[in-house]
Specification:
homodimer; alpha/beta; Lyase, Ornithine Decarboxylase, Chain A, domain 1; TIM Barrel; 2 domains; 9 helices; globular; Metal-activated pyridoxal enzyme (chains A, B); PLP-binding_barrel (chains A, B); D-ser_dehydrat-like_sf (chains A, B); D-serine ammonia-lyase activity (chains A, B); lyase (chains A, B)
Amino acid sequence: MTYDDIDIGYDVPAAIGDNIADIQTPALIIDLDAFERNVARMKDHAEAMGVRLRPHAKTHKSADVALYQMASGGAVGVCCQKISEAEALVRGGVTDVLIANEVADPKKIDRLAWLAESAHVSVCVDDPTVVAALSEAAALHGVTLDVLVEIDCGARRCGVLPGAPAVELAKAVAAAPNLAFTGIQAYHGSAQHIYDPVERRAAIDKAIGMARETADLLRDAGLEPAIVTGAGTGTHDLEGASGVYNEIQPGSYIFMDADYARVRSTEGNGTIGGFEHALFVLTSIMSKPASGRAICDAGLKAHSIDSGLPTVFERPDLTFASASDEHGKIEDPQDTLTLNDRLRLVPGHCDPTCNLYDWYVCVRNGRVEALWPVTARGKLY
Amino acid sequence: MTYDDIDIGYDVPAAIGDNIADIQTPALIIDLDAFERNVARMKDHAEAMGVRLRPHAKTHKSADVALYQMASGGAVGVCCQKISEAEALVRGGVTDVLIANEVADPKKIDRLAWLAESAHVSVCVDDPTVVAALSEAAALHGVTLDVLVEIDCGARRCGVLPGAPAVELAKAVAAAPNLAFTGIQAYHGSAQHIYDPVERRAAIDKAIGMARETADLLRDAGLEPAIVTGAGTGTHDLEGASGVYNEIQPGSYIFMDADYARVRSTEGNGTIGGFEHALFVLTSIMSKPASGRAICDAGLKAHSIDSGLPTVFERPDLTFASASDEHGKIEDPQDTLTLNDRLRLVPGHCDPTCNLYDWYVCVRNGRVEALWPVTARGKLY
């Protein structure tokens, strides 16, 4: 074999059937047993609450994961954040996508309407000028777009104000050719990561109140919101049990990350929903230069530290102390680590971490069972 | 044209010849004029100091940039951090790569020796067990590897202690078949980002002292260190003028980022080396939901916030206040922004930001002049 023979695939981190020890590091690995348990748990939660489950695919960006969520995890479809992300998943076989976000750029609006020729596509709006552009593009492509009005229910990000402004926008949607007013997007992103359950419930109670008020006003105006959707992993049980929301959009529950492990459950006595860590960055010790210190090969390009540093799975004696571009510094006070030892890091934040990789290496019983491409990696548009 | 006609290339953010206004956002753009001035400045600095320039390619991961640095920027070759990164650049035409890092895994050591059949490849060591493995792999592939001993000169990351331990390791390298002892790697990473010039010089003065002591001891032992290499953008002028180092490894100077803009020059009266911002994340306003607040389409997956939030280029009236996965919140106290307005963000940290993108969109005089692939994006192994 010459060097050129490995042109294709030389950076695939493992082959199906490999032992875990043969995976090249750093690699993004899924513990399939834990992942499947997480998927089943959220399916059960949603069924028990009687709400639709539309998981957010921004977490995983994977057609394989999305199709598994729809086939086995009770999902009616998925959410995406960007049109290019939705395109990638539809190409991968996903048939129902809500862009749980605004699309304002004319080229992207055209792509959105175009995509609706191939799949059920819905989208959020918070601006009347976009309503006209969406309507025009939908007409051009001969489709009808389902449109939800996004309200700002506390995150101070996108969204019109709840109540009358939302009703005004819904009226514009309902009046626009080739658009169907479908309901309300009411997602409180920052509340997902409030660690304290009492404070978290207080934030979501306010969001529920705003969604309820808006839904009632819409009904008074003759605009039934068929869908009231929102919630994430951190608050899925609150919106889900509210009687106001009839759809939830959790994403991280399939993987869980180090930050979500700090979010106490609503009852205050465990992790949210009973979800467990199923996603890891597999890393190797590449230098053991001094007592108490080991250096691993997973730095800022291997996991995102925006929500804190990773933890070392099942190794409470070790601390991931700092990251540089391609190195992680591990405090190893008992000097247990030696060169080429491997550790599983639980990333601080799973969504931007997954976006760094081309492949999920899916493992079970110590072996590589599957390689799933990160279908929509880098799809930012 | 059907949807499937755009299967290839539908996520390329622009076409050559496009106006800047037609680039799909978020996109990573290079101001070619500023980039070329930065390359010329560092070439001049290195020539004036009489040291070799081996820019670090971990910043850009681009064969196009590396080849330009070698053809026009005075570079003798480049540095890489990972074997897969080096492989990608060698495939792109780069002929001389120093892995300015340790390679400990047996599979990676094999890949390293294999790569040395196609290019001049050198590597660092800080562990005697790796010396034996490198020697064996080099013999297997019929190559001689140039090996530098890395010393810990203050960063407390990788590297043997300076002085006698480094000499012992150098002796092992020199005695190993198919390895050539080439010199000392003495890079103080954390010093690059010390904003205060007096503190920064103090840290580097210590590093220079350790490199000098080690070089002298090596000479006493009959092991001439042909190369003493290190330094980054923040300290290139200090090691470069030391009389001890004869090679510098700056990376970020080509682009500059928001954090490097905070690093005062050694004279304390300007930015380091006179370098200017040449890399931007082009972003669009996708929501203008409330007075004082605008939301752009560049979040945590569009730039890395590990070294702080981005700044808004040439818009001191605007503040990038916070990022979520796909949104950036812009404080716009004078309400100047409207939907689909575009801004250039200076990323907080250029290296991990570049690693998020597939393409550099290179612009000059308001037009897209070139598209350069991020050749080694995601090459983490």
